[in-house]
Amino acid sequence: MTWTARVRSVRPLGPHFTRVELGGPGLRSFRTLGTGDEAVTLYFPRPGESAPPPMTVVDGVRGYHGLASAPVGRNYTVRAATDGVMTIDFARHGDGVASTWAERAKPGDGLVIWRQRSWYHPPAGTDWIVLAADATGLPAIARILEQHDSRTPITVLTDFPGALGDLSPRLAGLARSPDGVAARGRDRGVGGLLDQIRDFAPPAGRGYAWFAGECADARRARTLWRDVHGLARDQVASVGYWRAEAADWERRYATVRTEIERLYQDCVDAGESIEDAGELVEAELERRGL
Ligand SMILES: Cc1cc2nc3c(=O)[nH]c(=O)nc-3n(C[C@H](O)[C@H](O)[C@H](O)COP(=O)(O)OP(=O)(O)OC[C@H]3O[C@@H](n4cnc5c(N)ncnc54)[C@H](O)[C@@H]3O)c2cc1C
Question: What is the residue with the minimal CA distance to atom 47 of ligand 1?
């Protein structure tokens, strides 16, 4: 299923984010998964277009087939979705198709939306939750916190603690919140987020840790939660949201793509879970310096 959307409004949210509200008739059939870190892939207009073309289905496969240049797709958190209106909060990070589009977007501009999914699923019996993210994961953290309806305490670790208040005024005073939710952080610094995870003192009971940020950091965060803090696989969701030096990585990945995809498929065909297959791929990529 894909959806088309038109920009309704664009506005800055503090120094780090731009909020884009999407609507239009093509979005009326969108039904949210309801999960706090629900994400979709947004496809952006190509140069000279105000909206990307629709996808086509060839041999049962949906996608952009047979185009000289396919629209670029990027993943974004569904910050909110109600009554045919979807909100997306874009972190401003400089050059990039998505980041630049958000800065220049105006009412009426079009997008194509595809692939809903989510990772945040604390198992029943979780006693405490910790959410750690750089700027790209803060929209998801804001939605998770807004939707949190149990007494399970949540701690937020981030390099941008003040930005949560930009995303949601309700979250501005987190540290003083009476229900156990607390935000901690420090000014942005190299490795700061991972240091916070390493230094985290887990409360008693069964925990659940969610991470979103740079891909190599996501790998390191998973290792810290598992090896240093002793969390089991179903107690950790660590998701790579963006990749440093992305173009260089893509170039190097292209040389091993076929092998890596075969490794993943063989693992799934052998009956392993997609989580196990994903971890095997991660380990292989790390071994190859990717
Ligand atoms: C499930 C999921 C949900 C996400 N949700 C959000 C969200 O709600 N809001 C949001 O802002 N982002 C979100 N992201 C991250 C976003 O998809 C990436 O940052 C994406 O690369 C941005 O695309 P771009 O076209 O602007 O830059 P790209 O063309 O991908 O990259 C251009 C250059 O910028 C660098 N770059 C990319 N992103 C960043 C960054 N954040 N900081 C610094 N450098 C960067 C790359 O290394 C590259 O060198 C999410 C990612 C995933 C996987």
Answer: 244
